[in-house]
Amino acid sequence: MNRFYFDKCNMYDNVIRIEGNDVNHIKNVLRMKPGEHIICCDGCCNDYYCVIDGITSDCVLAGIEKKVRSSGELNTKLYLFQALPKLDKMDFIIQKAVELGVYEIVPVVTKRCVVKISDKNKQEKKLARWRLIAESAAKQCGRGIIPDIKEPMVFTKAAEYAKKLEYNLFPYENAKGMEHARMCMKKASANTSVGVFIGPEGGYADEEAEMAKDMGFNIVSLGDRILRTETAGMTVLSILMFLISE
Question: 168-180: per-residue pLDDT in tens?
């Protein structure tokens, strides 16, 4: 069943009003008609099973048949602190991270990042595209929320932001000991909020790793092979999703 997100202010008298780009998608792409069923999600983990009552040029009206709690969310909030990669790799990372249950994604500018977003207009365009990718992925995999994509932060600011979380994982190529890594993964899965820091193509600078260690982050190895930046985050999120899921 097709899934759409709506603003809770557009729900009244047991009817949901869908606006924006989804109207064109329902009307002209899916070619849906009154009487067909859809799922409307309020972005707060509530799913509303609805029947389309009417379609106009600027809105779709859907009558609510039943409300259920979304089943697509993990009990632990996973925060991905992803160093900005080259080319369009961030698009792929966001899509897959949302599928794996991430709660929030923070793009990070580290010392060895090749990509630097200094132009405000370019940053806003990238952020808008990333958020559309997150919404599309959330629809596809049945999420109860649309994970937020934060504005890019420098590493020091991102590390400070992560201090509010209960547990932080910092995969690092110079870390040793898979037994320690397994223990940290299990401990992470038992917390309610977990940050995962992933470095750029060139890896973290030694001083960044030292700062993370001084701040109490858990420095872990992901094995003897050097993983690409777009692989490392997916590896950690997959392990955590498996450990957290009931």
Answer: 999 998 888 899 9
The three-state secondary structure class of 197 is: strand
Architecture in CATH for domain 77-244: 3-Layer(aba) Sandwich (3.40)
Could you tell me which residues come within 8 angstroms of residue 229 by beta carbon, excluding any fewer than 6 positions away? 82, 83, 85, 89, 93, 198, 199, 200, 201
Cα atoms found within 13 Å of the Cα of residue 137, Cβ hemisphere only: 23
Domain residue ranges in the chain: 3-69, 77-244
Amino acid occupying residue 235? T
Q: Decide: residue 129, CB within 10 A, 0-12 exposed, 13-18 middle, 19+ buried.
A: middle
Alpha carbons 148 and 104: distance in angstroms, whole number: 5
CATH of 3-69, one of 3.40.50.2300, 2.40.50.140, 2.40.240.20, 2.130.10.10: 2.40.240.20
pLDDT tens string 80-129: 999 999 988 999 999 999 999 999 999 999 998 887 777 778 889 999 99
